[in-house]
Write a structure and sequence with these properties.
five-stranded antiparallel β-sheet; 4 helices; 39% helix
Length: 116
């Protein structure tokens, strides 16, 4: 019981029915809109799926293999380059909405969503 109470007291991100939030960003799960303060933009399907995955695992390193399995599917022909391209798109979009949140590369391992 103590464990459950501890988990409910401090979480790294907030989840409600329609949004995921971490640090200064919010992702609307119905409209695919990523926002920070008064700035917002719409994400494409793959961008949205990757951002949703990162927001559900903030501060955790996610390997490219896991992203390919989760986003493109286990039997997909997607390669690491596909992940790198979409991470680049998302980084540009985070800068565009003036977010302090960033997607860090953990060399040889994967990516982590973190507060800058």
């Amino acid at each position: 019981m103590q464990e459950l109470r501890s988990l409910s007291i401090r979480t790294d991100h907030a989840i409600n029915d329609n949004t995921l939030s971490f640090s200064d960003i919010t992702l609307n799960l119905q409209t695919y809109e990523l926002s920070c303060g008064g700035n917002s933009l719409n994400l494409g399907l793959k961008e949205f799926s990757i951002m949703e995955y990162l927001l559900n695992n903030p501060n955790k390193v996610i390997s490219k293999e896991k992203m390919i399995e989760k986003i493109w599917g286990y039997d997909s022909d997607a390669e690491y380059n596909n992940v790198e391209v979409y991470i680049s798109f998302l980084r540009k979009k985070l800068r565009h909405i003036h977010s302090g949140t960033s997607i860090k590369t953990v060399r040889g391992v994967g990516y982590r969503l973190e507060e800058s």
